[in-house]
Amino acid sequence: MDWSIQDISRLAGTTSRTLRHYDDVGLLKPSRIGSNGYRYYDERALTRLQRILLLRELGLGIPAIREVLQGQRDDGHALRAHLEWLQKEKDRLDRQIASVEHTIDSLEGGEQLMAEDMFDGFDHTQYKEEVEERWGKDTYAKSDTWWRGLSEEEKADFMERTRRLASDWGDAAARGVDPSSDEAQALAQRHFEWLGGIAGVPGDHRGEPTKEYFVGLAEMYVADERFAKNYGGVEGATFVRDAMKVYAERNL
Question: What is the pLDDT of residue 228?
């Protein structure tokens, strides 16, 4: 039995574009291509896709995933290792949920917030390898030092600012705002300033994010499903990207 690319994209919560990209870079070849030109995937291909998506969740980039897949031929053994990671991740998410629930209860009950309880389960290092691969070890080291140097109140403020920005992007995208409009460009300006406040972001002589970095990040929001989720999926991320590219052309 095999499944069409449309079936797989729906079942796996990904896109046909992503699956075709995985084919282009040699990560996931279709089992066969029909006379209609459609890609089809069998059970072995589905197992490989499951491993790819798990490795993406681990924060690995495509070159690193290719290395892992080439080095691990035993799907069962590899999936057992992934299962162990998923169990640890479940524990981390359970702790995050409990942390946020505790904060909500404290806020609604008028209780004192305990900073040491607010960030249990939050791990900013989970994308370390990917950041180092994309932008270099120095970039990660600087941002890591910056984050660790913040007080708990400053961390909470930054996270809230991040949440509001993503929410406002998502709202504008849902309303069909034109990426070149004043509203969208004001959001892009906020995004640019938000990035500029993070130590280690590739910057120019003024310390502001470079055009190359800003546009590259915008493209990544669409290409990487993990980031696209922050903006309501690929459609929302595409709106963010387009607005950021307009801003870059006008201002950077």
Answer: 77
Cα distances from 50 to residues 10, 69, 75, 195, 241, in angstroms, run: 14, 12, 10, 33, 28
Place of tokens 């915008």: 218
Burial class (CB in 10 A: 0-12, 13-18, 19+), 34: exposed
| Of 136 and 33, the one with more pLDDT | 33
Instruction: Average the pLDDT over 230-244 and give the result.
Output: 88
Res 181: pLDDT: 96
Going from N- to C-terminal start, the domains of the chain cover 2-71, 150-251
Taking the domain 2-71, which CATH number applies? 1.10.1660.10
Higher-confidence position of 92 and 188: 188
Q: How many CA atoms lie within 13 A of 191 on its CB side?
A: 27
Q: Which two tokens stand for residue 50?
A: 């499951």
- What DSSP string describes 34-82? -TTS-EEEEHHHHHHHHHHHHHHHTT--HHHHHHHHHH---HHHHHHHH
The radius of gyration of the chain's CA atoms, rounded to the nearest angstrom, is: 20
Q: Is CATH 3.40.190.10 the classification given to domain 150-251?
A: no
Q: In what order do the strands lie in the sheet with 32-33?
A: 2-4, 39-42, 32-33
